[in-house]
UniProtKB/TrEMBL annotation, chain A:
Organism: Methanocalculus taiwanensis
Topology within the bilayer: Multi-pass membrane protein
Keyword Magnesium applies: yes
Name recorded for this polypeptide: Ferrous iron transport protein B
Any single Pfam family the record assigns to this protein: FeoB_N
Residues annotated to bind Mg(2+) 1: 22
Automatic annotation (TrEMBL), chain B:
SUPFAM superfamilies (UniProt xref): C-terminal domain of transcriptional repressors, Iron-dependent repressor protein, dimerization domain, Winged helix' DNA-binding domain
Organism: Methanocalculus taiwanensis
Alphabetic keyword roster: Iron
SMART domains for the chain: FeoA, HTH_DTXR
Gene3D superfamilies for this protein: 2.30.30.90, Winged helix-like DNA-binding domain superfamily/Winged helix DNA-binding domain
Protein's name according to its UniProt entry: Metal-dependent transcriptional regulator
PANTHER family assigned to the protein according to its UniProt record, in alphabetical order: IRON (METAL) DEPENDENT REPRESSOR, DTXR FAMILY (PTHR33238), IRON-DEPENDENT TRANSCRIPTIONAL REGULATOR (PTHR33238:SF7)
Superkingdom field: Archaea
Ranges where the Ferrous iron transporter FeoA-like domain occurs: 140-210
Tagged with keyword Disulfide bond: no
């Protein structure tokens, strides 16, 4: 690698690692996907007295011994000693729990700086920590910080540059475990940490795993506990003793606990519903407003001048398609994706999200998901793209697949535009609601079926409730911005390519040829004229475009004059259910893979056509 | 050292007192299905050794010392009865009879070993622990307790599947508080000062007892 010093922030989730990372690094932060995983790693550079230090923000974990992708990733990085110095971040208000991970990390014998964050909050709770004693016990420098106020941040870099020592702290394990670890180390010439790891998780088929397995079951027989349980218990007890040794508790004034209202069925659930509806209303109104604005701006300042140029045929078609693709991308990205991410970042950073997940656990169970599943479902009403991106929060692949499929089906705001623009304005409100009813029924049925047939095991929910605190505006905006750029990066290329192709097809007459071919089918199956089918095709770029194209192709905005109520109704239903838009497909491919993305697309197409055909048969 | 009869008497007085009843001579006799004259000498011997106090000829209550002794015997009975029903598959009533015979001679060491044998997690993840053991009410699934109670974790079933729980500190002997319990039995517990939400299927895999 490069010759520069590389440091990594390691610690439990929500201890302030990202805040510290943001304080220490300047511009040029890069989110990279660690090869072979969906875990995001943040890398940045710290410039200090003309020296550049690389800083990596490792994902928040509770332990190094779990099966989750994050834990496996961090374990791998530590095992391969990919970083020179570890900066272990501890939450001073939960020292004991945080020490558990620190004790594991210390076993890897990598030079370490300990950052004790949130010392101000600890003080408020009446917790007084003896930093010098803690530093002496761990054998590494301990730096008290308040990351939310940026206090003492430079001291972290100073300590990292001063060649910190390898931590000397070590847990005395049960003597059988120690003996087993010693013999493994001796036989295979490996470090103590590797021997312990092998005992905890004897994986693979090599001799080491075999011996570890044998020794492990021997220990298990004797203690009636697995080696992992024994080791974990030893560590927990050691952390407790250490935490008690270095902390002094003063009595603190009782504080009002917001959780008494947030996590009870009442008023917790009404509050949850109010918040969800609030988010939706906010995004609908603000999103629609800004989308309108962006679309009109591009119309007047890009499309019209471009058409005025009067370029020769093909160039005009390609150029126009490019502008339309940009219009579609921007029309989704800024109004919906960005606003959604702002709101979600606020809810996430405030700690409310975990409460919502707890309350929603029961209803999500029906769909084979856990409480966390509520997040993508709610987001789905605004825009499927951020909703699908949040599917990553779910613990198992099974849940991610179920959530992705359901999210794709939930009527997003663009589809709401179709429903309101076509059904509500030409047929009536009751009919518009009935479209929603049909879609919800299908989502519900699909969810129940999926929870039965999707492969994979269902695990329960074990979720730490993050502390409630007021989110920091700059962090919220930064987070939302990063997720937005991620969206643009995924969706824009696909949007541009497909739009250009559609433009060229239209230019060389393929679209009208398609219309000629599709017309008999469209008329016989759905009872829709050919141009309606073409409009549906354009809906793939951006769902509202189906509605706009329909008006253009029909030659009038008064759709009621060219199509019957039934035709309009069927068009809206099919359009809502029909294939997700290109941006959605792009995110689907990224999140759950090509195979599932294709399956989901085919499923929705089939569903749209079948429901449309049934409606036609049933109503005539 | 008491005779078997004396131990049975102490155990029964404890049971009567726990039911909120007053232990009279007749009640004790009827519980033991023995005539009054048979148990009277034994009762007097217990009074003489300071295990029972008797304010009136018909009312016999346990002293502090007597209560301790009675609880030891009651625990032996519960552990044995539980072992016999759970692990050996005896009928509850037969198990209780057997337990009555065994409880007098068994050593504390054996009882402790049996107890920890039964508390140890079931590796195959089957069965529901002590559902047949009505008299062994000490340790029960987390969801049987109510909001606000402080408990001690007695065991976590299938530890291999719940590494996360262990990593968060839900281990044998750890004190936890039930912070919230919804009607669907999802719970929020407080472990090491952190609140952790658990879905019902996880909560039902954790056993705990009240903190004494």
């Amino acid at each position: 690698m490069t010759g520069r010093l590389s440091c990594a922030l390691i610690g439990n989730p929500s201890v302030g690692k990202s805040l510290i990372f943001n304080h220490l690094t300047g511009l040029g932060v890069e989110v990279s996907n660690y090869p072979g995983t969906t875990v995001d790693l943040m890398r940045g550079n710290v410039c200090f007295q003309r020296e550049i230090i690389e800083l990596v923000d490792l994902p928040g974990i509770y332990s190094l011994e779990g099966e989750s992708e994050e834990e496996t990733l961090v374990r791998g990085i530590l095992n391969r000693k990919e970083v020179d110095i570890l900066i272990a971040v501890l939450d001073a208000t939960h020292l004991e729990r945080n020490l558990y991970l620190l004790l594991q990390v210390a076993e890897y014998k990598i030079p370490m700086v300990v950052v004790l964050n949130m010392v101000d909050e600890a003080e408020k709770f009446g917790i007084e920590i003896n930093y010098d004693l803690l530093s002496e016990r761990i054998g590494s420098p301990v730096i008290p910080t308040v990351a939310s106020e940026g206090k003492n941040m430079e001291a972290i870099i100073d300590a990292a540059r001063a060649n910190p020592a390898i931590p000397s702290i070590s847990v005395p394990y049960d003597h059988h475990v120690e003996a087993a670890a010693r013999s493994l180390s001796k036989i295979y010439g490996i470090e103590r940490s590797s021997s312990l790891q092998a005992l905890v998780r004897p994986e693979g088929s090599d001799d080491l795993a075999d011996s570890a397995q044998g020794l492990g079951s021997e220990i298990e027989k004797r203690h009636n506990m697995t080696p992992h349980q024994i080791i974990a218990t030893n560590r927990h007890n050691f952390s407790r003793a250490l935490a008690e040794e270095v902390t002094e508790l003063h009595s603190r004034p009782p504080r009002f606990d917001l959780d008494t209202i947030l996590t009870r069925s009442f008023p917790g659930i009404p509050i949850l519903i109010a918040i969800i509806i609030g988010i939706l209303l906010l995004v609908f109104t603000a999103g629609a407003f800004f989308e309108e604005l962006i679309v009109t701006l591009i119309d007047t300042y890009a499309i019209e001048p471009f058409l005025a140029l009067d370029l020769p045929g093909l160039a005009s078609a390609v150029g126009l398609s490019l502008i339309i693709a940009i219009q579609a991308g921007m029309g989704i990205a800024f109004p919906y994706v960005f606003i959604f991410y702002l709101v979600i970042s606020i809810i996430e950073d405030s700690g409310y999200l975990t409460r919502a997940a707890f309350l929603a656990d029961r209803s999500m169970h029906r769909f084979g998901m856990h409480g966390q599943g509520i997040i993508p479902m709610v987001l789905g009403f605004g825009c499927s793209v951020p909703a699908l991106m949040s599917v990553r929060l779910l613990a198992t692949r099974r849940e991610r697949i179920i959530a992705s499929i359901l999210v794709t089906m939930i009527p997003c705001s663009a589809r709401t535009v179709v429903i309101s623009g076509i059904v509500a304005s030409f047929i009536g409100l009751a009919a518009a609601f009935s479209v929603y009813a049909i879609v919800f029924l299908l989502v519900f049925a699909t969810g129940i079926v999926l929870s039965k047939v999707t492969p994979g095991q269902q695990f329960g929910m074990i979720l730490e409730m993050s502390a409630l605190r007021v989110p920091r505006p700059d962090m919220v905006v930064k987070k939302a911005w990063m997720r937005l750029s991620e969206f643009l990066f995924i969706a824009m290329p696909l949007l541009l390519i497909s739009s250009v192709f559609l433009g060229i097809f239209e230019y060389i007459g393929l679209v009208s040829a398609f219309q000629d071919i599709i017309t008999p089918y469209s008329e016989s199956v759905l009872g829709l004229p050919g141009f309606a089918a073409t409009a549906l095709l354009f809906g793939i770029l951006r769902k509202e475009m189906a509605f706009e194209t329909l008006a253009v192709l029909a030659g009038t905005a008064d759709l009621g004059s060219v199509l019957s109520n039934l035709q309009l109704y069927i068009f809206a239903v099919v359009c809502v259910l029909f294939i997700p838009c290109i941006s959605t497909i792009a995110v689907l491919i990224r999140e759950i893979g090509k195979k599932w993305a294709i399956l989901v697309s085919l499923y929705t197409v089939a569903l749209g056509i079948i429901v449309g055909a049934l409606l036609k048969i049933g109503m005539t | 050292m008491q005779t078997s009869l004396e131990e049975d008497i102490l155990e029964d007085i404890l049971a009567i007192q726990k039911d909120g009843d007053t232990p009279t001579l007749e009640k004790i006799a009827s519980r033991l299905s023995l005539p009054v004259e048979t148990i009277l000498p034994a009762l007097e011997r217990c009074r003489d050794s300071g295990l029972i106090s008797s304010n009136s000829p018909s009312l016999w209550t346990l002293t502090k010392e007597g209560r301790k002794t009675a609880e030891v015997i009651a625990r032996r009975h519960a552990v044995l009865a539980c072992f016999l029903t759970e692990k050996l598959g005896l009928e509850a009533e037969a198990a209780s009879r057997e337990a009555c015979l065994l409880e007098h001679d068994i050593s504390e060491e054996t009882i402790d070993a049996l107890d920890s044998f039964m508390q140890s997690p079931d590796r195959q993840c089957r069965g529901h622990g002590r559902r047949h053991c009505a008299h062994y009410s000490e340790s029960a699934p987390l969801i049987n307790f109510s909001e606000g109670e402080t408990l001690i974790v007695t065991f976590v079933r299938c530890p291999g599947r719940h590494r996360r729980l262990i990593d968060l500190g839900v281990i044998e002997g750890e004190p936890i508080i039930i912070r919230r319990k919804l009607h669907n039995e999802a719970v929020v517990i407080s472990v090491k000062g952190c609140d952790i939400a658990l879905s019902p299927e996880i909560a039902s895999e954790i056993n705990a007892r009240r903190r004494i």
